[in-house]
Amino acid sequence: MPMNVVLGRGPDAVMFLATAEAYTTGVVLCVGLRLRRRSDDSRATVTTQLMGGSPRGGADPDDRLMLGVQLPDGRRLVMQPGSVPPAGVDPFANPAAPALTSMVGGLVGDLSQDFRYWLRPLPPAGRMLVVVRWSALGIQETLNELDAAALSAAGSSATVLWPQAPIEQRVQRPSPPPPTTGWFAQTS
């Protein structure tokens, strides 16, 4: 479903939620980034940051995109880098475990990039926050309130293609540290 919600804005960058695709077990958030002019960072560096990584491989939250969601029930999720699971591990195991992960793929250009993030479980109806911070692009921490009722309704009416098969739990990778101030610092 189309959303077109500006998530955050810097002097030369804008992030927005373009669409949300609801499924029975979660939602794909399609996020766009538009740049006024090419930044000092290379395209690969910005792409790495959109996937949740740091351009220098460090743990400094100012070096990377911070994307978070607060579900209507109060649970907070912070985007975890990398969506490629270890061999033999199903990334959709335990669909009830809350998660926000970057997904492989997206449209990449010099001034325009679109990426997708998987949010599970399907959020219940109510007030949902989407929070972004990307200091390297001048985007300060910004909280955006969405009504999750439409997402909840769309996911609840989606067709189940195959029943969930019992499989082993996904291997958990350690999370990079959060910033020391703001919404992300209060999320653990």
Q: Main traits of this protein?
A:
globular; transmembrane; transmembrane helix; four-stranded antiparallel beta sheet; 188 residues; 2 helices; five-stranded antiparallel beta sheet; single chain; 38% strand; membrane; mainly beta
Structure description:
By secondary structure, the chain is mainly β. The chain has one domain (2-186). The chain is 9% helix and 38% strand. It contains 2 helices and 9 strands. It has a 5-stranded antiparallel beta sheet with strand order 1-2-3-7-6. A 4-stranded antiparallel beta sheet has the order 5-4-8-9. A hairpin with a 4-residue loop joins strand 2 (13-22) and strand 3 (27-35). The longest helix is centred in the N-terminal third of the chain and has 8 residues, at 43-50. The two termini are 30 Å apart. The relative contact order is 0.24. Residues 83-89 have low confidence and may be disordered.
Give the helix/strand layout.
Elements: E1 2-9, E2 13-22, E3 27-35, H1 43-50, E4 66-70, E5 76-78, E6 99-108, E7 112-120, E8 127-134, E9 139-147, H2 149-156
Antiparallel strand pairs: 1-2, 2-3, 3-7, 4-5, 4-8, 6-7, 8-9
Transmembrane segments: 13-33
Keywords: Membrane, Transmembrane, Transmembrane helix
Radius of gyration in whole Å, from Cα?
16 Å
Q: Which residue ranges are poorly predicted, with pLDDT under 50 across at least 5 consecutive positions?
A: 83-89
Helical region count?
A: 2
* Secondary structure: number of strands: 9
User: Residue share in helices?
Assistant: under 10%
The domain count comes to 1
* Element string (H = helix, E = strand): EEEHEEEEEEH
- Give the spatial strand order of the biggest sheet: 1-2-3-7-6
Estimated structural class: mainly beta
Span from first to last CA? 30 Å
Give the overall average pLDDT.
78
Beta-strand proportion = 35-45%
Outline type:
globular
Main sheet specs: 5 strands, antiparallel
Transmembrane segments: 13-33
Keywords: Membrane, Transmembrane, Transmembrane helix
